[in-house]
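Memo subject: From amino acid sequence to discrete backbone structure tokens
Action wanted: Derive the backbone structure tokens from the amino acid sequence.
How to read it: Take the token row as a discrete description of the fold.
Attached in line: The record itself begins immediately under this heading.
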Amino acid sequence: MATKYLKARQFAETYSIAVTTVYAMCAGGRLPHIRLGTGRGTIRIPTDALDQVVAADVAIQDHPVAPAAQPKPAKPAKPALKHMKIGTGRSSG
């Protein structure tokens, strides 16, 4: 049986996601696709691509990565008053 392909916009509408998300997933290698034509061409995505993405995400969740180390709390900022000159109270006049 021949695989059916959808345009990026059709894929986005079918699965209720943004077209920009579809393009980003294609560019990041997360969504299987083909390009047709010369130059930039046009993207075609197999109809079963989302199943592959979901299966890959489930596999990743089954093997969680250790949580990242928590950043150290920031030190409180010191007031920057170096530009002010505090006099002795005497006027030099």
The beta strands are 5-7, 34-36, 42-46.
